[in-house]
Amino acid sequence: MQTIQTIIGNLIKPVYAHCDLPCGVYDPAQARIEAESVHKILQKYHEPGELGETDKLRAIIIKEQRADLVKQHLWVLWSDYFKPEHMEKYPELHDLIWRATKQASICKHATDPAEGQKLLELINEVATIFTATKQAA
Amino acid sequence: MQTIQTIIGNLIKPVYAHCDLPCGVYDPAQARIEAESVHKILQKYHEPGELGETDKLRAIIIKEQRADLVKQHLWVLWSDYFKPEHMEKYPELHDLIWRATKQASICKHATDPAEGQKLLELINEVATIFTATKQAA
Amino acid sequence: MQTIQTIIGNLIKPVYAHCDLPCGVYDPAQARIEAESVHKILQKYHEPGELGETDKLRAIIIKEQRADLVKQHLWVLWSDYFKPEHMEKYPELHDLIWRATKQASICKHATDPAEGQKLLELINEVATIFTATKQAA
Amino acid sequence: MQTIQTIIGNLIKPVYAHCDLPCGVYDPAQARIEAESVHKILQKYHEPGELGETDKLRAIIIKEQRADLVKQHLWVLWSDYFKPEHMEKYPELHDLIWRATKQASICKHATDPAEGQKLLELINEVATIFTATKQAA
Amino acid sequence: MQTIQTIIGNLIKPVYAHCDLPCGVYDPAQARIEAESVHKILQKYHEPGELGETDKLRAIIIKEQRADLVKQHLWVLWSDYFKPEHMEKYPELHDLIWRATKQASICKHATDPAEGQKLLELINEVATIFTATKQAA
Amino acid sequence: MQTIQTIIGNLIKPVYAHCDLPCGVYDPAQARIEAESVHKILQKYHEPGELGETDKLRAIIIKEQRADLVKQHLWVLWSDYFKPEHMEKYPELHDLIWRATKQASICKHATDPAEGQKLLELINEVATIFTATKQAA
């Protein structure tokens, strides 16, 4: 009788078609929701009387975390969702996602809501391509 | 001249109206996307030839993480988004979200896709109330 | 001979009695210890000469993290430890834990040690019910 | 008038007495609770009929995480709570905590509940010294 | 006299030259060390008698985590270290890093050490370009 | 035929020689890279005109995280890499690593770059012993 060790050793077959296990469930909404949070924090930062001193400091802490989550979700779309055929069809995609992650970094030290707006627009462009690839699938 | 220490000490005013800073940007889609992932993993687990041995083990690992994220997003909605007036208007809300988080735990050890389906339905019920409160605001 | 795939597929039986695997080891002390940390930070914040400027900023950062951990531990108690029979016996439990997590959020932007004290008292109420359910088991 | 930049630059005074901000609230209970969880998982692993196949795999995943938390809490006690004077009075303390963290690593691949018991005993020894230093303070 | 609120509001000047604060300290060694760990785990997985059953399962868990860290470190290099002028000089860079992150995903479900070797080679290519950009700076 | 349950139960043999699975791939460079980041942040903090106000606050947040990572990597070396024979040959090792982690804590509230320099020197001492044990192996 084979031990599990042998069974596991023998049966594993590469499944290159789907790189990561949970593929199929990706959604640019995850990046967008966090970016909306970044944008809202930037807006509140400037509204007079909206935030007390401690909350202004907290705004910077939380904006840092939310912008990190934006980057995280964009990276997952880039590395896990998009396939070589998408990159071929949309040659600007690498650069677009790259600039979106850089914009998230800019939002970390920015206090101007316009930077958050720009981040949302870049994520929107990624989402448009995402939807097109979904419909083509 | 006041030192910052004094200034910070003096100016901080409680802002009880908004418990957490980034309030305003909440979305049940965050819980739903992770739950869809849990559901999809449960479905793949049973499709013959879909997953190799290693990937079956990985499916359990990843399902564990995704179900945790479902709970996390539901907890944030519960504690950070919903306010006393919502609880008054929807007295079943505590129990509904509680059962949804318990269903996420059930999905951790379940292998039956029906459990994932049940999780999605409970999140859907939470989302319906969420939308109603948004429209009422 | 069955492959592991078949064996795993066949043998898995739902174990609904214990929702999560590590059930049995829950302790409100985890939430309480983090809340004591929040409380202590709030006290130090006001003691003259206790904290330098950088440490005042760090106090806000660390308080944010500790208050998050309080919420985390309360959520686990709520979703993983407490069972339907507890909710039936203590109908105020949902609301009590909910208010405790909201108080942890208040402590994030508060600088008044009284808010930390209030958090400790709410956790104490949860702990009292927890102990009663343990003794009844 | 000084800008904040200057004020922050000038006012920061080293506070070497307390290395980390939240010092004062340390509790070996944090390591002990996680270790009890590890121990319980090891016990359940062997009780016939207690865990289904998926849950056996999950037990290994969760045990890995809990044992990591044990190490984490022990490291914090070692680096953040204990001071040079404690090390002088308890010269075995470095080695004791070190062996406790190594025992947590052993519990990761062990399936024998005796290893969990040994971990609990080592944490108990750390806790005894901790209590003695508290009473001496 | 200005309040801090005003001072902070006025003095913040965009510093677009360095996107993220800690720029300057990047090192492909971080990705490489985690990739070596992935590679070593894949090798051990096949050495007869090297790993017991529990440790074979743990190998899959730990490999999953290490491969995630590889992706994380590559993403940070991509978004935070590399600048537009680098992308212009090395037009293959987007695709190279992208394929390296995809190879890390392949290593998650692979059990063939050759996949780990391939990951190390891709990271090496990234490191070569990294070093060239450092020397040019 | 044995079920997996029995097989797993029977075959697991303690492998005490290597405490943790991924042993073999440890590198003090991980702690050093994060410490360089801490050091650089401390230097930038004092360069006039280098950081705007928001970035000064962010510097403290990021320094806190990086110093935590330094501690984390040192703890892993201490508990996972170093073996009893190393401690016997280098009896100062416990204390050296301990002081290095305490120096990382000091860097959290320090603004003086000299504290970062001191941290780098302590990590260097750990690395020297690490290299010696590697060559002796």
How would you describe this protein?
The structure is a homohexamer of 137-residue chains. Chain A has helices spanning 4-11, 29-46, 53-81, 84-89, 93-109, 113-136. By secondary structure, chain A is mainly alpha-helical. Chain A is elongated, with a radius of gyration of 20 Å. Chains in contact: A-B, A-C, A-E, A-F, B-C, B-D, B-E, C-D, C-F, D-E, D-F, E-F. The interface between A and E is medium-sized, with 32 and 32 residues.
Give the end-to-end Cα distance of chain A, rounded to a whole number of Å: 44 Å
Mean of pLDDT of chain A:
84
What is the count of DSSP helices of chain A, taking H or I runs of 4+ residues? 6
Tell me the Rg of chain A in angstroms.
20 Å
**Helix content estimate of chain A:** over 70%
Quaternary form: homohexamer
Order of helices and strands of chain A: HHHHHH
Structural class of chain A: mainly alpha
Low-confidence parts of chain A lasting 5 or more residues at pLDDT below 50? 1-19
How many strand segments of chain A?
0
Protein chain pair with the most extensive contact, residues per chain:
A-E, 32 and 32 residues
User: How large is the share of residues in beta strands of chain A?
Assistant: under 5%
Largest sheet of chain A: none
Categorize the overall geometry of chain A: elongated
In short:
In chain A, 74% of the residues lie in helices and 0% in strands. Chain A has six helices and no strands.
